[in-house]
Write a structure and sequence with these properties.
It comes from Paramagnetospirillum kuznetsovii. The chain is mostly helical. The chain has a single domain, classed as Cytochrome Bc1 Complex, Chain D, domain 2, CATH 1.10.760.10. The chain has six helices and no strands. The N and C termini lie far apart (41 Å). Residues 14-22 have low confidence and may be disordered. Bound molecules: heme C. Heme C binds next to α3.
Length: 118
């Protein structure tokens, strides 16, 4: 009994220490602020973000983008980081109503997530 309990504790601690190792597809806490509009796998208020990394902006089928977003950048690491820091300043006139990610650690985790989410 005791052994099982301690094994559980040790496993829990190991998972806490390595949040990115758990699953590449698991959304980080920072992505909670995106979920109202972005559902992975389908369009909602915002476009489907599955496979967004490396994609030209404004190109998901069936989503009605602003002209600004259609003329936006290709989503590499630098452009995603800039856009998610300051959506309005980076793609002026785009219609995503979001002020930007405030915490640097959330920003890094969300960009890392967008790189792998399919
Ligand atoms: C209030 C709703 C809303 C929130 C919150 C929101 N978005 Fe968006 N997002 C949108 C809309 C709408 C668009 C399309 C903008 C346009 O066409 O001008 C968009 C576009 C994008 C794009 C460009 C996608 C493409 O296909 O070119 C990315 C990347 C993105 N959002 C990421 C995020 C992330 C990451 C978060 C959270 C940190 C977030 N968004 C929060 C509504 C939202």
């Amino acid at each position: 009994m005791l052994t099982t309990k301690y094994l559980g504790l040790a496993l829990g601690a190991a998972l806490l220490a390595a949040p990115f190792a758990a699953s590449a597809q698991e959304a980080p806490a920072g992505f909670n602020q995106c979920k109202a509009c972005h559902v992975i796998g389908k369009n909602g208020v915002g476009p489907n973000l599955a496979g967004v990394f490396g994609r030209k902006s404004g190109t998901v089928d069936g989503f009605k983008y602003s002209d600004a977003m259609k003329a936006g950048p290709t989503w590499d690491e630098a452009n995603l980081t800039k856009y998610l820091t300051d959506p309005k300043g980076t793609v002026p006139g785009n219609k995503m109503v979001f002020a930007g990610i405030k915490k640097p650690e959330d920003l890094a985790a969300v960009v890392a997530y967008l790189k792998v989410v399919k």
